[in-house]
């Protein structure tokens, strides 16, 4: 079964093609990274996956077997977990607490509009505890550090049993310890949920864990490379993607690092 099936997606802002004839599919249980420099089209693609942006006429988007334009998106989003350090910025509520944001995951919203019941609070606390973050339960999201906010957003994603998890540059604001904690958390989630389809968006090669089975590199709105991880992560592809000379180094752990020539 294809979890994601995008055919002929084009997005144009003014006269600029932000996505250019994208056709891409991901099967159930695959772990995909999407790599690209700033402006490559990663954010636009995420908006399409979540149904927040529609490509031009002629495209077909099917997510979890449901075709966009023929499905209730609010219901479909309950089957999709979205983790992004930018997500909480959508809400205008300066008093939103970590507990409320975590519980909002049950309804695929970014606020919680009901009085919190004791059993709901207990559930939110238990999920935060999995991330060693239960002490954040009653803190306002706006006062949390970037690393703490990402933990809360992961907890929000875990409030349901998602079939698809989209991790949209979750490491962008994190320091090295925070990044490594998050990557270990993602690895644990993948190991605990073999049928969970993961899509991980990044512009950093060192973020790409060995657990990712496939990858796609975007450049200038088009697909530069797509396929099994080992075929996509090559020096040739990375030089083209980032327009610079570099060497690709693989560590014993299976992760990659780059050295600039």
Tags for this entry?
8 helices, 261 residues, Rossmann fold, 2 domains, alpha/beta, four-stranded antiparallel beta sheet
Detailed description of the structure:
This protein has 261 residues and is an alpha/beta fold. It has 2 domains: 1-64 and 163-234, Rossmann fold; 91-159, no CATH class. Helices cover 27% and strands 28% of the residues. It contains 8 helices and 12 strands. The strands form 3 sheets. Strands 6-7-8-3-9-10 form a 6-stranded mixed sheet, sandwiched between helices. The longest helix has 17 residues, at 176-192.
Q: What proportion of the residues form beta strands (DSSP E)?
A: 25-35%
pLDDT < 50 runs, ≥5 residues:
none
**Helical region count?**
8
Q: What oligomeric assembly is this protein in?
A: single chain
CATH class of the largest domain: Alpha Beta
Q: CATH H level of the largest domain: which superfamily?
A: P-loop containing nucleotide triphosphate hydrolases
* Rg of Cα set: 18 Å
Strand order of the largest sheet: 6-7-8-3-9-10
CATH topology heading of the largest domain: Rossmann fold
> How many discrete structural domains?
2
Distance linking N and C termini: 42 Å
Give the arrangement of secondary structure elements.
Blueprint lengths: L1 E12 L2 E12 L3 E5 L6 H8 L10 E4 L2 E2 L5 H4 L3 E4 L14 H6 L14 H12 L16 H12 L6 E5 L7 H17 L4 E6 L11 E6 L2 E7 H4 L2 H8 L3 E5 L5 E5 L1
Parallel strand pairs: 3-8, 3-9, 6-7, 7-8
Antiparallel strand pairs: 1-2, 1-4, 4-5, 9-10, 11-12
